[in-house]
Amino acid sequence: MSLSVGIVGLPNVGKSTLFNALAARRLAETAPHPFTTIEPHEAVVAVPDPYLAKLSELVKPKETVPATVSFIDIAGLIKGAAQGEGLGNRFLAKIREVDAIVHVVRAFEDPNVPHVHPKIDPKEDLEIVKLELELGGIKDKPVIYAINVSENEISKTPKANLAAPAVVISAKLEEELIDLTPEERKQYLAQLGVTETGLEKLITEAYWLLNLITFYTIKGGKEVHAWSLKQGKTVLDAAGEVHTDFAKNFIKAEAIKVEELLAAGGWKPAKELGKVRLEGRDYLVQNGDVIEFKIGAN
């Protein structure tokens, strides 16, 4: 499922820093000046999934493959972008290509990172970008706001009336965590008085924003795979995501909710308990289904 989320906002609000944290590697240059990112970079990011981890513990496969979301770092827009200011037409064209938007809004003070306006005003910045997107013909795209705060404000709740989902995140903190081990990360966050950051929540929110659900396949005990699928799609569509031949030669599918499979302790005991369902090609896949496709010969 090749859907993508574009990271947008004014210059110097932390877009590339956030992208670096998402990619877990510094692909995009970060520097305190406008238009740091001229060519958009793309990062394919694993979707946080506790069920996948539990399935992997149960099956103990050689490989575990998560569902993913693609994030694209797009250079900063400025006032007048829709009229071509600051390479605006070029960047707006990139935004039109994505399926949803993460709009990064600056809410941190840093004298070393100049703002494009005289003062930090998240509401005004948000309205400028929103207007430029509308003037550029980008009106109805799904959006989530990433309120970028300083490290000591990550426990705050975003202000209401944003007319879209919002996540508080410290992009600078997230980037600093890249090079730490899990234990070091845990200790660092404890010093800040938090147990988790907003990055995983942002990824998950972006996933739901794309109207995606997750189903799982277990390949002979060798691979546990989480797959993305648009909500409302059939098991035949799911078969096509796994392999085109699966859809072409589809006969039926066996399915079980991941919670029931885990509770039963495996596919065989779940089947003995009558928990595995037989589904035809018109079955609408549900979030969390574990599916085994039955296919005929070519």
TrEMBL record:
ATP-binding among keywords: yes
GO cellular component, one term: cytoplasm
Keywords: ATP-binding, Magnesium, Metal-binding, Nucleotide-binding
OBG-type G domain boundaries: 3-189
Domain TGS: 211-295
Domain of life of the organism encoding this protein: Bacteria
Cofactor(s) listed in the protein's UniProt record: Mg(2+)
Protein's UniProt keywords contain Secreted: no
Molecular function in Gene Ontology: ATP binding; ATP hydrolysis activity; GTP binding; metal ion binding
Gene3D superfamilies to which the protein is assigned, alphabetical: 3.10.20.30, P-loop containing nucleotide triphosphate hydrolases, TGS-like domain
Protein name: YchF family ATPase
Source organism (scientific name): candidate division WWE3 bacterium
